Amino acid sequence: MADITRTLPLERSSVQSAHERIKQHIHRTPVLTSNILNNLASTSQSPEALIGTPFEGQKPAHPKINFFFKCENFQRIGAFKIRGAFHALSRLSEEELARGVVTHSSGNHAQALALAARTYDIPAFIVMPTISTPSKIAATQGYGAKVFFSGSTSDEREAVVRDVIKDTGAILVPPYDHPDIILGQGTMALELEEQVAELVQQDLTLSVQHKPHDSTNGRTNGQSNGFTKSHMGKPGHLDAVIAPIGGGGMLSGIATAFSPTSTQVFGAEPSFEGADDARRGLAAQKRIEKVSTLTIADGLRTPVGLIPWSIISDTQKVRGVFAVSEEQILAAMRLLLERVKVFVEPSAAVGLAVALFDEEWRGLVEREGGAEGWNVGIVLSGGNTTVEAVGKMFEVKESKAERAEGKVGRDGERVAEGVAG
After folding, report:
1. Which of 106, 152, 154, 259 is the catalytic position?
2. Side by side, which strands form the sheet with 146-150?
3. 400 an active-site residue?
4. pTM (predicted TM-score)
5. Are 244 and 297 in contact (CB under 8 A)?
């Protein structure tokens, strides 16, 4: 990878520079809104829904939320990772490019680096865990990369990468733990900010109604936590952005892009089998170095990297990280599929799941947003899964499935009727 001593500083202007370098290679992915999900998020959960959760017995929060979905599932290779890959290669020297590139990834960074390498006409060597989905393996190979297989943990992946570097001399392009990757991923924040302003300019009803208020956002001791009044009170201002966190390249990039603004940044991750290493690490004030989980959010099965951690653990840049259950991830996926009509992988749904189900986060919005509420950007990080995989996740009993398919009536009777759709 490019020598860290010659990388750009981790600040908003560097993200802007990165965007100029890569914009010819990426899509300006759409930002979508949904009145249905706005209404759902702005309705209190029932007390029954909180039974069995850490929030059982609490009064459900009643925030006001308007969503703006940044749809990186429509990005090239189907995920945000193409941003960091192209930026990383753009900053390598001709001599470094000629050696080829290598990385380890469960799929999205693998595909991104393979496509970027093909664009630059250089070799790509990709180490993928054997449990990577067949569709992601096939796509990576389809872009011309040579794939090597490894175990699923970070240690196992990195061991194979070292062997590949020894044999080929290729330059390592890590999936998240490098400034060039972080700055590249942060470019989506610049687009999101601009696109929300454009959408609201066309339709003011998309935005919550703001009034200028104290920039402390309800924080104690008079500390502003680095957030300013510069855009507060303007329709179309983003109060918050929630993004998934695995290795942390995307979240730290978004936080870097928004750090001089009043937009607050939050992370979202799965809780299954200790996948919530970022949340636990923040609570312990120490980065957790190893994660071993089979959460359905397969793109988030990795510990936070050293450089992303230095940003994510800075409360001036990331307000907090929240974790959700597998069931909550699936519920958010279902809403995105059925209500917003977007096809996403489980990792992409964690941000929406936090906004809908995490009472701590929802209570924060209620307290600080008040009756006006918050405009919230939700990053849908990718859509690289298959119909078969999604079908298995949502598998139901045959009787329920037949009712959903319109094959039986409400009472279970089978009646063939010529009813127009």
Report:
1. 106
2. 146-150, 124-129, 101-104, 171-172
3. no
4. 0.88
5. yes
